[in-house]
Structures are given as structure tokens and as C-alpha cells.
């Protein structure tokens, strides 16, 4: 068993986005995306994986294959990996998203990143 504190992974992005890994196993990764005010996670897909996005703090607009959905704290969104997705920070502060991806797919998704 492991216990994690989300706020340990909340970070002010030095650029546009600070991704901080919480957990990684053979089957799943979990991380926090910290997206700066006015910035976005560019459009991409995750092939055969399923993603769960939960807004921890802030507000977001998620575009999936041309459809837009607004999310606020406490709301959770499931996205199939083959869907193209883009996440925009629509709030007045850093957007904090808790994300899980299963199966992992590419190892490129399984590390901290600053973009």
C-alpha cells in the first residue's frame, strides 16, 4: 500500500506545463498536470489507453474530437485513447489535473516533464 498527498505534486509551471508523476506500474500511471493560466495541453491521443482526468483546482475546457466540455473541481472525465484531446486552462490560476492512463502505452508518458 502507498499513500500520496496530491499537493506534493502541485507545482508552479516554469514554462507552460509541469507534469509530476505520482505512480507508475505495469498497467497504469498517475500524475498531476499543472497547466499555467491561459495555456493549454496541445492536441494529442493515447492510442489504446483509457484516460481519466479530474480537475483538482481551477477550471478547464477539454476538446475531444471537436467536442468541447467544461470541467470544474471535483468533476471527472473519461477519454478513450484513440480520441484526439486538448486541454485548455480557462481559469484565473494554475489548473491542476489528476490524470490516470491505463494501459501505459508509450514510456514517453511515464516521466516528469516541463514543457
TrEMBL record:
The residues covered by the Cupin type-2 domain are 32-99
Coiled-coil residue windows: none
Protein name per UniProt: Cupin domain-containing protein
Amino acid at each position: 500500500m502507498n499513500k500520496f498527498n496530491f499537493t506534493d505534486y502541485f507545482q508552479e509551471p516554469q514554462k507552460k506545463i509541469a507534469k509530476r508523476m505520482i505512480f507508475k506500474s505495469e498497467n497504469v500511471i498517475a500524475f498531476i498536470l499543472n497547466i499555467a493560466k491561459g495555456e493549454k495541453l496541445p492536441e494529442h491521443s493515447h492510442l489504446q489507453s483509457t484516460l481519466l482526468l479530474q480537475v483538482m483546482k481551477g477550471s478547464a475546457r477539454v476538446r475531444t474530437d471537436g467536442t468541447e466540455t467544461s470541467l470544474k473541481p471535483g468533476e471527472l472525465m473519461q477519454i478513450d485513447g484513440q480520441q484526439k484531446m486538448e486541454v485548455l486552462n480557462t481559469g484565473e490560476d494554475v489548473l491542476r489535473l489528476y490524470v490516470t492512463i491505463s494501459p501505459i502505452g508509450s514510456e514517453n508518458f511515464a516521466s516528469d516533464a516541463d514543457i
